[in-house]
Amino acid sequence: MNLSIPVSGLIAANRRQSVTANNVANLNTPGFQAQRVESIAQEQGGVNFNTITTDTTPASPGASNVDLTNELIQSRLNVHAFQANANVLRAQDQLLKQGVDLLRDQD
User: Fold this and answer.
1) Which residues contact 24 (CB under 8 A, 6 or more apart)?
2) Cα–Cα distance between 4 and 71 in angstroms, integer?
3) How far apart are CA 100 and CA 1, in angstroms?
4) Mean pLDDT rounded to a whole number for the chain
5) For residue 38, what are the β-bridge partners?
C-alpha cells in the first residue's frame, strides 16, 4: 500500500483551500487578482501542486476579480477532495490492522 498517494491528495486539497480562503479574504481588496493552484499528476501516483497562478481576468475599476460564487464552489470541491483522500487513508489503515490481527491470530 502506498500511503503517499492519498497523503499527496490531502496536501493538495489543503493548499487549494488555503488559496481559496485567501481569494475570499481579498474579495473587497481593490486590484487583487484571484489565484489558483495548478496540480500535476505524479507518474508514481498522487498529485503535486506545482505553481500558483494568477487569474488575469479584468475586474471593474477599484475592485478585485474574485468571483465569490466560483470560490464557494472551489471550497466545496476542496472539502470533497480532502474527505475522499482521508477515506482512502482510513480504509488502508483498516486493511493494515486486519492484516496485523490475522498475523497475531496465527501465533
Assistant:
1) 66, 68, 71, 75
2) 28
3) 14
4) 91
5) 51
CB atoms within 10 A of CB 45: 12
Mean pLDDT, residues 19-41? 95
List the one residue out of 91, 83, 82, 92 whose CA is nearest residue 10: 82
Angle subtended by helix axes 4-25 and 68-106, to nearest 10? 160
Alpha helix stretches (DSSP H) within 26-67: none
| Amino acid at position 8, single letter | S
**pTM of the prediction?**
0.82
Q: d(Cα 88, Cα 103) in Å, to the nearest integer?
A: 23
Helices (H), the chain: 4-25, 68-106
Q: Give the integer Cα–Cα distance in Å for 82 and 105.
A: 35
Q: Stretch 78-87: mean pLDDT, rounded?
A: 95
Per-residue confidence (pLDDT) for residue 5, from 0 to 100: 87
The whole-number pLDDT of residue 41 equals: 86
